[in-house]
Amino acid sequence: MTDKNQAKKMGINIIQSQQENNPLFDMLLKNFPQTIKDGQVSLSAIKMLLGFNESMNDISGYELTWTGKGLANALYSEPCQKQLKLQESFTPQTSANKHPNNAIIIGDNLDALKLLKSAYSEKIKMIYIDPPYNTGNDDFIYPDNFRQDYQKILREVGLMEIDENGKEKESESLKFFKNNQGSKTHSGWLSFMLPRLKLARDLLKEDGVIFISIDDNECANLKILCDEIFGEDNFVGDFIKQSKVGGGSDSKFIVKEHEYCLVYAKNINLTNEMFLKHDDDYLKRYKEIDDKGRFFWDTFSRRGLTNPIIYEIKAPDGTLIKDGWIRAEETFKKNYQDGEVRIIKIKDKWSVQFKQYLNLNGRKPRSMTTDFGGSIEGKNDIINLFDSDKIFSYPKSIKFISTLLKTRATSS
């Protein structure tokens, strides 16, 4: 690895951080976040972006590499020669449906994303992806005619070689791909995901958000891959979703009942906060009202905080109450004077309480919940819609998808 001093001796001007207000750094961070790692510009990422073979030392900290990454980037850049053909049998023309706003695209999703990009680049507010989980049963890697369809790309990225007789032959890396089709290979899965996620990012508006479902098999790799594509600073968070209940007698160690949904923003500084509408049970606690709105009296004490703010509060009878509090002492004094904090006696003990106001925008979604609906709900939803559960496997529940949609619909 080349350090800063060595790079300077080589005549390389190092762009160090966004705090330097370097317009080139800002441009790379906004449009090509995969070129920024640990606050430094990755020369190898820029070379890969430009289609150059990596030959010089990288000055970045770390990156995710695998067999076929160059091929995956080449597939992202390869133009799509296909066209969409309207299937009128799926688009009934009625007086109320002359210009339908919805579309189902049947075909390779890589081609579909490229076709969508030509018309919807930077216009999509939200994307949800439910990719193959790479469990060993997924048929997602590359078809038998892969070598024939991408022969030019395979040569450019070095997956096709020339033997001693001048004949073209497959490299060991390409043989690795072909010999592991359909099996659980991280390299194959990452090569499948990279171009599709990069195209998805191209589709997002500047304030857009993407949700990606995944389980334990590839969650760690997906997080690092998305950090590279969307930028680590644009990671919004993840949902831990209960996918099933019960069973597990065939599990050797831990009964797995959950999945993840990673959330990334195109530009987190421009993305609106996430809210869900308040339900009736939640609203019941907000029984009181003043000129600022609805509220309930919540405890001012916060003993469970990692770093509680500890000081003494004097009760009306002079008793000193020492505890860990939710707000700083100066803020408490102001809130008390304004009537937003009270000190009352409950069962012979003094209690400090503050007005917890209702957020009119809604409530923030919780990262861990059982309210998303599991695999059984998803299967039942498909049966109710199509009178069959053979439409596609492992469907997500309508409740889960609609909840994700609502987190964006309630934002301005």
From TrEMBL:
Q: Which InterPro entries match?
A: DNA_methylase_N4/N6 (IPR002941), DNA_methylase_N6_adenine_CS (IPR002052), N4/N6-MTase_EcoPI_Mod-like (IPR002295), SAM-dependent_MTases_sf (IPR029063)
Reactions catalysed: a 2'-deoxyadenosine in DNA + S-adenosyl-L-methionine = an N(6)-methyl-2'-deoxyadenosine in DNA + S-adenosyl-L-homocysteine + H(+)
Report domain DNA methylase N-4/N-6 positions. 124-352
Q: Which GO terms describe its molecular function?
A: DNA binding; N-methyltransferase activity; site-specific DNA-methyltransferase (adenine-specific) activity
Which Gene Ontology biological process is one annotated for this entry? methylation
Q: Where are the transmembrane segments?
A: none
UniProt xrefs under Pfam families: N6_N4_Mtase
- What Gene3D superfamilies does UniProt report for this protein, alphabetically? Vaccinia Virus protein VP39 (3.40.50.150)
Q: What is its EC number?
A: 2.1.1.72
Entry keywords, A to Z: Methyltransferase, S-adenosyl-L-methionine, Transferase
User: Which top class of enzyme applies to this chain?
Assistant: transferase
Q: Which SUPFAM superfamilies match?
A: S-adenosyl-L-methionine-dependent methyltransferases (SSF53335)
Name the family. Belongs to the N(4)/N(6)-methyltransferase family.
Q: How is this protein named in the record?
A: site-specific DNA-methyltransferase (adenine-specific)
**Organism for this UniProt entry:** Helicobacter pylori NQ4053
